[in-house]
Amino acid sequence: MSNNKVPHLRYSDKNINLPKQLPLVGLGCSSFSSFFSSEESNDELTIDTVSREHPAVIGWIETIRHAVLNRGINLLDTAPWYGHGVSEAVVGYALDKILSNDEGCDHIQHRKRTGSLARSDIIINTKVGRYEADPLKQFDFSYETTIKSVQRSLERMNCNYIDVLQLHDPEFAPISILMKETIPALLECKRRGWARALGLTGYPLDVQHEILVKAELEFGNAFDQSLVYCHSNIHDNSLFTEHCFPSERSQTDTFAGFCKHANIHLMAAAPLSMGLLTHAGPPAWHPAPLALKEACAKASKLCQSEGVNVSSLAILYSLSHPSIGCTLLGMKDEKEVDVAADLASRFSAVYFNNDEENQDLILDQVLTPKERRVLNKLLDKTDGPFSQLKEDYRWDGRQEATRFWALVDNMKRKS
User: Fold this and answer.
1) Dihedral of the CA atoms 173, 80, 30, 290 (nearest 10)?
2) β-pair partners for 162
3) Which one of 121, 127, 234, 271 is at 20 to 30 Å from 383 when CA atoms are compared?
4) Alpha helices in 228-333 (DSSP H)
5) Is 415 exposed, middle or buried (0-12, 13-18, 19+ CB in 10 A)?
6) What is the pLDDT of residue 36?
């Protein structure tokens, strides 16, 4: 473990709404809640009971401070959905210790801060649309709720603006509601200065593409950023390989190509594919098909047999793509921050020129010979663990939404 800070890459020169630079790896803040926690003591934490004195919260605050101040991971991505408000509250507690007071913002900043970092030195992203654990209250894409949610997020995090305000899991919403209510509310939040830029994030790339195209026609340049997850990793690289998204350049472009030509900047999340690419394996709720789970288990065993950590290799692979501005990773404690930061630090001497063909050259620079050999085995299209997968290399995000609303309808009928 070193104390090197992670490299920062140029992100946006043309779009003044977005940060000019991003850290190569960003801090996914779903870990700062009971969302994915295995600790029983954390189950009691709700938005009504969370406090900065709780032992778990104290540790999370220090984890965030360590990531930002010691390792240079100055992008925090949270959401009201994470812990149903707890994550945003914990981020706010940490910011109170990291940031200095904003002059002239007493009407917005309702708690005094004790840190020294300027607000402009940290990137704070959150989301709207997904909220409660109760399926009947989980999603709300209405104009009024969206406005109230952003106000609540600003209050929880004790800050006067959000860097990128993101539409969360829009595959669960009728696109008519998004166009009539949610996106106008997002634009109003931006007009009021509550958000510098707007983004969206969800699993199905085709849903994001449809929304981005329709929003462009209806509102002009509504969105600045797309955050994708589980589509830029060892088993699913469809962000760059699936040619079915019409763009200004081609009727059969990739989603990454579409975004590039629409001046929509790309971020990625979940390089471990929500636990698939770990030695422990995925959680029980993971939506991946059985064939993919089995292939990832084979990949893990192959790595173990070669003395390579499958998670480290997966993270290095995801960080190596030059078209991605930042990759988000959940890090629940300082040890995990250091592991991620040390991996990211391998890229300090790498020149990212945004050339998709350059990924192999970048991997050659950052991987050890043994890691490179094992990665080649994993990616082998004839004998590799993923070589026999067809459509099973991912799951059906639209079908997940359909099943969810069928559950809701059934609950309503029974009530």
Assistant:
1) -20
2) 195
3) 271
4) 238-241, 255-261, 290-306, 310-319
5) exposed
6) 60
**Per-residue confidence (pLDDT) for residue 286, from 0 to 100:** 96
pTM score, whole prediction: 0.94
Neighbours of 221 (CB within 10 A): 13
User: 239-281: per-residue pLDDT in tens?
Assistant: 999 888 876 667 778 999 999 889 999 999 999 999 999 999 9
Per residue in 158-203, pLDDT (tens digit) is: 999 999 999 999 999 999 999 999 999 999 999 999 999 999 999 9
Report the first-to-last Cα separation within the chain, whole angstroms.
Answer: 55
Whether the Cβ atoms of residue 61 and residue 97 lie closer than 8 Å to each other: yes
Q: What would the DSSP string read from start to end of 139-192?
A: B---HHHHHHHHHHHHHHHT-S-EEEEEEE-GGGS-HHHIIIIIHHHHHHHHHT
Spatial contact of 254 and 261, defined as CB atoms under 8 Å apart: no
CA nearest to 274, candidates 263, 264, 260, 284: 284
Show the tokens assigned to 273.
């594919």
Token couple for 48: 């009504």
Decide: 300 and 214 in contact? Cβ < 8 Å: no
Say how many C-beta atoms besides its own lie within 10 A of residue 396's C-beta. 14
Neighbours of 290 (CB within 10 A): 8
* CA 392 to mean position of chain CA atoms: 23
- Cα-based angle 212, 263, 73 (whole degrees, multiple of 5): 100
**What is the Cα 30 distance to its own chain's centre?**
9
Distance of CA 301 to the CA centre of its chain: 27
